[in-house]
Amino acid sequence: MAKIKSKIHFLCSACGDDFSKWHGQCPTCKEWATLSEFKVSPKKNGRKIEPRESKSLSSILTQEPRKRIPTGLKEADRVLGGGLVPGSLLLLGGSPGVGKSTLALHICSGIKRKALYISAEESEEQVALRARRLNINPDQLHLSGENELNGIISHIDRISPELVIIDSIQTIMNSELDSLPGSPSQLRDCGQRFLEVSKQKGVIIMITAHVTKEGTIAGPKMLEHMVDTVLYMEGDDRYDHRILRSEKNRFGATHEVGIFNMDEEGLSEVVNPSEMFLAERSKKIPGTCIYPSLEGTRPILVEVQALVSNANFGTPQRNVNGFDFRRLSMLMAVLEKRMGLIVGTKDVFVNLVGGLRVDDPAADLSILCSVASSAMDKAIDENIVLLGEIGLTGEVRSVSRLEYRLTEAKTLGFKEAVVPIASLNEKVKRIGLIIHSVHSVNNAFKVLF
Question: Is 1 among the domain residues?
């Protein structure tokens, strides 16, 4: 009998679509150089698929809903929407060393229920040493260094845990496939099997994954599509704090963030992030101001720094940390066209201190004013906060949840605020700050300079 050959397909790492032949550009998502080869074995794996019975909606609605399980970390619960949902599949991504495994161990200890930690990258002894250093409660935590998919499922059947940690998906393999661990076919098959287990058995499965140099989770994009929640752990080697944010959440909001401090004893929650970000703020120096950010339902005050200097090369530089580069270019154009302040021939550097990334248009006014402050060498009053979205005509547009932002500023000792006139209401007036309501950048400059 002739040996049956494996079929060769090409899988796009960006969109997850597969093709029978290689393309330089993916025909589906139009990304370049994203197709990689993987083999599809013609043999069946022999798993018997039991059809699931359908249920009427009325019978499901009469059942008592499953309660969320608190993680023991209020910051993590905030991002998850109140806790872990039974039967959910979560994907936790982050760069190496950022604290994914540490967070997973803290959650295993915090739920105070039976948990299974699959560490395919480290031995049980290595994980146990870290757990001792982090003061993890060992009573209901089981460890395993298994990296074979069917073996992991056998452990789940035998132990019947309520939470399973897979650390990490790139090291798990299905021996029935003719490919190496971490390949697109392995990631796709293992992810699908974990999805089946979580839904059929009602167990919570959290999968950790590495990220690429672009900051996205490595592997097929469809891995993010099949899970219920996608979490990212962000951090910088220069800072001790870590930021947990949600990119996808079927059971809660995606705009919340959790902030932790990382030290030798693991992760500790940051109760007041504003004090942490303003701990070393610069005062009475041109090019700095304070922006009251809003991450989900939490106001966080951030110092915005700008530096404008003469260009040393033919093309002026535009460097920004924590803000959208294209939006910065738009603000510089508004500054030149509407205010007559020439910065097109100068280097402009903008930094949001502390490593926080902001994509809220309400930061426009503070960034533009900090650049103008540096360019004119005039300092902005240290007791004032700025916020407002800026349009192409130089108008200052309204922002959301203004009273929450200004209440946090008042708590931290600020006395004045420059806000859009369209956002002014009675609640804002009662906060106790001196409010400067403006309808254009020109009005804001008259208040500040």
Answer: no
351 and 419 share a domain? yes
Q: What DSSP character marks residue 65?
A: P
Query: Which residues constitute the domain of residue 13?
Result: 7-40
Other Cβ atoms closer than 10 A to 272 = 14
Residues whose CB is less than 8 angstroms from the CB of residue 407 and which lie 6 or more positions away in sequence, other chains included: 299, 431
- pLDDT band, very low/low/confident/very high, at 237 (cuts 50, 70, 90): low
Q: Tell me which of 19-28, 129-138, 378-387, 431-440 is least confident.
A: 19-28
CA distance 396 to 387: 9
Q: Classify residue 283: in a domain, yes or no.
A: yes
The answer on 305 and 258 residing in a single domain is: no
* Nearest 10 degrees: Cα torsion 299, 300, 301, 303: -140
Which residues does 50 contact at the CB level (< 8 Å), separation at least 6? none
- Same structural domain, 252 and 161: yes
Say if pTM beats, i.e. exceeds, 0.85. no
Please work out, in degrees rounded to the nearest 5, the angle formed at the alpha carbon of residue 39 by the alpha carbons of 35 and 44.
140
Cα angle for residues 332, 234, 216 (degrees, 5° grid): 80
Q: Residue 309 above 60 pLDDT?
A: yes
Q: Are the C-beta atoms of 440 and 422 separated by less than 8 Å?
A: no
Q: Which residue's structure tokens are 């500790």?
A: 268
E strands within 17-104?
18-19, 35-40, 89-94
Residue type, 123: S
What's the whole-number mean pLDDT along residues 210-231? 80
